[in-house]
Design a protein that fits this description.
Rossmann fold, alpha/beta, globular, five-stranded parallel β-sheet
């Protein structure tokens, strides 16, 4: 079995790994284990991620991350790909020896984990507080963007804030993983190309590890 450490931003992502990714990857021989980064709401930095990922490197076959681009501290004008490169460089500086860099691949979700939930807004009908009007509002939001990963205009219009405004009492820690399970990874990967590429990388770990052993 391939041991995969995933440094995550919060309890929602932690539950997503345990409830969704684990069930998907385990039959492929990949066992993902989430590690909650030590921070205060949205206070994710390159250095903090690098410390946790470098520490996990010694105990796992592969190490990745699942953190939001929104709220990432010190990003300046950088995009998610730029941040991933900086995180990799910071991990490299902490390991300080010759090592297989393919074992560590940071992932920054654009723009938030909740973007993935807009892959299929009909799944929100599973929530007891939902109404047809609410579903229509969510569908209207989704229709305004090419992909769910494009939903983020400003601090007040991130995916999570849009959902919370439509659904009073929405609990992201409980409802987020529930909705993700209902939507399914196949739909998410189709609707969210950045996430889909990361998921494909995770699925390929067992094969790549086997090839390296030969």
């Amino acid at each position: 079995m391939i041991r995969l450490a995933i440094v995550v931003e919060g309890p929602t992502e932690e539950a997503f790994v345990n409830q969704v990714l684990l069930n998907h990857l385990l039959p492929m021989g990949v066992v993902p284990t989430p590690f909650l980064i030590d921070h205060r709401g949205g206070n994710v930095t390159v250095d903090r991620l690098a410390v946790d990922m470098a520490t996990s490197f010694w105990n796992f076959d592969f190490v990745t991350s699942l953190v939001d681009f929104y709220g990432f501290r010190g990003r300046g004008q950088e995009g998610p790909d730029d941040l991933q490169i900086r995180i990799s460089d910071a991990v490299d500086s902490r390991i300080k020896r010759n090592w297989d860099q393919s074992r560590v691949f940071p992932y920054v979700q654009c723009h938030e984990f909740e973007s993935l939930l807009f892959s299929d807004v009909s799944a929100f009908s599973r929530l007891s507080t939902m109404s047809d009007r609410m579903l229509q509002e969510l569908a209207q939001i989704r229709s305004q963007f090419s992909t769910p990963e494009d939903i983020n205009d400003s601090r007040d219009s991130t995916p999570s804030k849009r959902i919370a405004r439509v659904i009073l009492g929405y609990n992201k820690r409980v409802d987020g993983p529930l909705l993700a399970t209902a939507i399914g990874l196949d739909k998410m990967r189709t609707e969210c190309p950045r996430f889909g590429a990361w998921l494909e990388h995770l699925e390929a770990l067992a094969t790549s590890s086997t090839n390296q052993a030969r």
